[in-house]
Specification:
The complex is a heterodimer.
Chain A (H helix, E strand, L loop, with lengths): L13 H8 L2 E12 L2 E7 L2 E3 L3 E5 L6 H8 L7 E6 L2 E3 L3 H4 L3 E4 L11 H10 L9 H11 L15 H12 L6 E5 L7 H16 L3 E6 L2 H7 L2 E6 L2 E7 H7 L3 E5 L3 H10 L4 E4 L2 E5 L5 H10 L6 E5 L3 H9 L13 H21 L1
Parallel strand pairs in A: 4-9, 4-10, 7-8, 8-9
Antiparallel strand pairs in A: 1-2, 1-3, 1-5, 5-6, 10-11, 12-14, 12-15, 13-14
Helix pairs in contact in A: 1-13, 4-5, 5-6
Chain B lengths: L10 H4 L6 H14 L1 H28 L6 H5 L4 H12 L3 H20 L2 H6 L4 H35 L14 H32 L3 H20 L29 H27 L3
Helix pairs in contact in B: 2-8, 3-8, 5-8, 5-9, 6-8, 6-9, 6-10, 8-9, 8-11, 9-10, 9-11
Classes of the chains: A alpha/beta, B mainly alpha.
């Protein structure tokens, strides 16, 4: 069984409808980029709703940076369209980019200048800053990433984390409608990572849209409202974080001393279940929670505790990427659950196909 | 370009905004002239006319004025001849290399540091960015020429006072007239270097390796000089920019023959147009 993004079943769901309704800060359609003989990105249909914090999740080489570069107009797509704040890129760069802050492919600064001088140089190129605002904007940005004390040191002497902070600072020079951060926590220590999360939360609170890419799941799970998962140059899943977390098999963990008997009686009622430590794990994609409990109690089984198990984004991510999208564990898992799960993942794609 | 409709709900948001050009140019100059490399090179260039003047004076006093090439013996203690003579020597290789170094840092160097995409997403328009970069390179080239001219002239004044300003033709010039001729030489050499810079910027736009730009200009300079030396290729010579460069000592004649200098300027203009066009074409399609 293989997930394909373009042959999506037309199943409506919470994922699809919410994306279709919200105005989009960034949008790509059929985006494709070929470098010589390598297809870096193909059929990328990405939606970044306004006001969302969208985490772009994917292993290294999955096309995250290439997609971001096309969104920012740094690279022209081979095919497809990318639009940013309502402007087609790369043509609308002059209209869209002043309102966009970006940290792409790591921080880029000159080693012989101090952090402050580097930032002043970036600020001089910012269209929305007047000459009088530059100093203040630079100091604010330095404060915001806790780099004020090291601002006069040469960039050459900065640690990896300080360089990353300076890159973040240059994205924050102007109040932005959209901030694009490519792997912002690279090289940061835990304190630095927390600060980046804080900055993202502040941006979100101020109404900015944030597009943040990462290969770290915990990062995305901690900071994002929306997720798009990229794999081998294609968006394989996207939607609200909560929906995608639920999209994995919703399961119920029932602790009971009569585990084997429970599994038997549940399966007799055509409810998928399997043994778990201390009890049974019941698949909830086809039945409701009370129904499961009713079945068990009617069969005379003692139930100590029933707990809804949330599927972590990690499991979702692992299934999408590490298994190469082929469900190798199909034998262990009830098929019906997989189908529902896939339908939900593809709901967003279906909505888009209708829009076309 | 920025047609603003009267009743747009968010006029500020939808209009194309650009950072003022003057601010960009100033930021570029600050960046160029804070780079240690630029300052070191300019400092070394200042030493050349001084050392040439001293060595010419030593050669002059030990061997007598009649021997050696006339320009070289003139350079001993003649501020104008020393300046123009040093420019004539350095334009052959050294000044083009300085220009190439600056061009290399301008685009390829920024690309290698990852700072080019920072400017592109600011955004600075791609052609605008090329203009800013060309301005920076032109300023460095002009500074390099000025540093040689000024230190050469001052060295000459220190060594023999304001009376030794005679020309190849035998006339003696007032300081004002000598400075006028020096200004012509400076302007003419600067234009030649801008031609080199334009071609170097084109190479710079095509690569991420600053070293390639310097190597390319060095190789081109040597190749052109070799080609210029082959009389069998005389049909090719009008196209070689290096052919112009031997015309510089014409400035020291009185009256100044302008034919070769004008031809050199026109040739340089062609190189500037071609070089900047190639660089612009590449900038528009370049991956940032």
């Amino acid at each position: 069984m293989t997930i394909s993004t373009h042959t999506a079943p037309a199943v409506g769901g919470p994922t699809g409808s919410s994306i279709a309704d919200a105005p989009l800060a960034a949008r790509t359609r059929g985006l494709r980029k070929v470098y010589r003989n390598t297809v870096a990105v193909d059929h990328v249909d990405l939606d970044v709703p306004e006001g969302a914090v969208l985490g772009m999740l994917g292993p290294n080489g999955s096309g995250k940076t290439t997609t971001i570069r096309m969104l920012l107009g740094l690279v022209s797509p081979t095919a497809g369209t990318a639009s940013l704040l309502g402007q087609e890129m790369p043509g609308g760069a002059a209209r869209a980019l002043p309102r966009v802050g970006a940290l792409v492919e790591g921080p880029g600064f000159h080693p012989f200048l101090s952090g402050r001088e580097n930032l002043r140089r970036s600020a001089a190129a910012e269209p929305l800053l007047t000459a009088g605002q530059i100093s203040g904007a630079v100091e604010d940005a330095l404060q915001r990433v806790s780099l004020a004390e090291a601002a006069d040191r040469k960039y050459r002497g900065y640690s990896l984390g300080m360089k990353q902070r300076l890159g973040l600072a240059s994205a924050l020079l102007v109040p932005r409608e959209l901030v694009v951060l490519d792997e912002p926590t690279n090289g940061l220590d835990p304190a630095g990572t927390r600060e980046v999360r804080k900055v993202i939360a502040e941006l979100h609170g101020a109404g900015s849209t944030v597009l943040v890419s990462s290969h770290l799941l915990a990062e995305v799970e901690a900071t994002c409202t929306h997720v798009a998962v990229l794999h081998q140059g294609t968006v394989v899943a996207q939607g609200e974080l909560a929906d995608l977390l639920e999209a994995g098999n919703p399961t119920l963990l029932v602790s009971t001393p009569d585990a084997e008997q429970s599994v038997e009686s549940l399966r007799d009622n055509r409810i998928p279940a399997q043994l778990a430590p201390g009890g049974v794990r019941v698949d909830l994609s086809a039945v409701s929670q009370p129904e499961v409990l009713r079945t068990l109690v009617r069969a005379g089984i003692d139930v100590y505790e029933a707990r809804r198990e949330r599927t972590g984004l990690e499991e979702l991510f692992a299934r999408l990427t590490e298994n190469g999208l082929n469900d190798t564990e199909a034998a262990d898992e009830p098929e019906i659950a997989d189908d529902v799960w896939l339908d939900r993942l593809d709901a967003g794609q279906a909505a888009k196909q209708e829009a076309r | 370009m920025t047609a603003t409709t009267a009743e747009t709900p968010t006029p500020v948001a939808s209009a194309a905004r650009r950072a003022p050009l003057i601010r960009l140019l100033r930021a570029e100059l600050r960046w160029v002239f804070r780079r240690p490399r630029t300052l070191v090179v300019l400092g070394l260039l200042a030493l050349i006319p001084i050392s040439v003047g001293i060595s010419a004076a030593i050669a002059d006093s030990s061997a007598g004025a009649a021997e050696g090439p006339p320009l070289f013996s003139m350079m001993a203690g003649n501020g104008l001849a020393l300046s123009v003579g040093t420019l004539a020597i350095t334009i052959m290789l050294l000044l083009p290399l300085v220009t190439a170094m600056s061009s290399a840092d301008a685009i390829a160097g920024e690309s290698a540091h990852g700072t080019l995409r920072g400017l592109l997403v600011a955004p600075v328009g791609r052609i605008r960015l090329l203009g800013v970069k060309a301005f920076g390179v032109a300023c460095v080239a002009l500074c390099a020429v000025l540093v040689i001219a000024v230190t050469g002239f001052l060295t000459g004044l220190v060594m023999s006072g304001p009376d030794g300003l005679f020309t190849i033709s035998g006339t003696t010039l007032s300081i004002g007239a000598a400075l006028g001729k020096l200004a012509v030489a400076v302007g003419w050499v600067a234009v030649q270097l801008w031609a080199v810079g334009a071609v170097a910027l084109a190479i710079s736009a095509y690569t991420e390796h600053p070293m390639l730009v310097v190597v390319g200009v060095l190789a081109g300079d040597i190749l052109f000089a070799v080609l210029g030396g082959l009389s069998a290729l005389s049909w090719l010579h009008p196209f070689l920019i290096t052919e112009s460069w031997s015309a510089l000592p014409d400035v020291l004649r009185d009256p100044m023959p302008t034919e070769a200098l004008t031809e050199g300027t026109l040739r340089a203009a062609c190189y500037i147009i071609i070089g900047l066009s190639l660089a612009g074409a590449r900038m528009l399609t370049k991956d940032g």
